[in-house]
Amino acid sequence: MAAAQRASAQRATEPAAAALLDAIRDRLHAGGYDDTLTGATDVGALADRMVAALPSVKHEADALIGPFYDASSLAAWRGVTRQAISKASTKGDLLGLKIGDGSRIFPSFQFGASGAPLPRLREVLALLDPERIDPWGSALWLNTVADEFGGTTAADALRDGRHEQVLRAARRAADAWLADA
C-alpha cells in the first residue's frame, strides 16, 4: 500500500480509534482498574491482546456473515495457540470456514465478548451439519435474521440464552435439508 493510501486509511479510521480509546479509558476508570494498570508489567502484551479482539480479515462474505478472524488473531485474542484454534475447529467447537488459499477464517458472530464460543454452539453445529460438509451453510443459517427468532439470528438467540429454541430450529433445518437431498 502506498504511503498516501496508508495515510488516507489512517485518517478515515482516526475518529473510530479515538472513540474506542475514550470508551476503554472510561471503562478502566469506572471499573477501578487503576491499581492493576500501575502494576502491569507488560501493557504492550495487553494492548496486543485487546487489538487482537478486533476481527481483521477482509472477505467478500463480510456483509453476510463477517467480519472474520484468521487463526493467528483469534488465537492471540483468546490467549491460546493456533493449533488449539485448529483443533477446536476440527472437533466442531468452532466454526472455521475454508477459503481459497486453503486457510480457515472464523466468523466473529460465534463469539461472546470474552472470546468464548456462543453457548451450545457445538450442539447446534452438530445438528446442522454432523459431517461438517457445509460449514459456510451453517454460518449463513446461524447469522441470518429469521422470524422464528423474533427478527434476530440464531446466533443472537444463543447469545440471549434461547438455546432450546435454537436447537429445535436447527433440528428442523437439518431435517428439511436431508429431505431435499
Structure write-up:
There is one protein chain. This protein is mainly α and 181 residues long. Helix content is 59%, strand content 5%. It is built from ten helices and three strands, in the order ααααβααββαααα. The chain has helices at 3-30, 34-39, 43-52, 62-65, 71-78, 82-91, 121-128, 135-142, 154-159, 163-180; strands spanning 68-70, 97-98, 104-107. A three-stranded antiparallel sheet has the order 1-3-2. Strand 2 and strand 3 (104-107) form a beta hairpin. It is globular, with a radius of gyration of 19 Å. The mean pLDDT is 82.
Give the topology, please.
Elements: H1 3-30, H2 34-39, H3 43-52, H4 62-65, E1 68-70, H5 71-78, H6 82-91, E2 97-98, E3 104-107, H7 121-128, H8 135-142, H9 154-159, H10 163-180
Antiparallel strand pairs: 1-3, 2-3
Helix pairs in contact: 3-5, 5-6, 7-10
The general outline is globular
- Content-based structural category: mainly alpha
* Contiguous uncertain segments of 5+ residues: none
Number of helices: 10
| Terminus-to-terminus distance | 46 Å
User: Main β-sheet: number of strands, strand sense, barrel status?
Assistant: 3 strands, antiparallel
Series of secondary-structure elements, N-terminal to C-terminal: HHHHEHHEEHHHH
What percent of residues adopt helix (DSSP H or I)?
Answer: 55-70%
Rg of Cα set: 19 Å
Strand content: under 5%
- The strand count comes to 3
What distinguishing features does this structure have?
mainly alpha, 10 helices
In brief:
The protein has 181 residues and is mainly α.
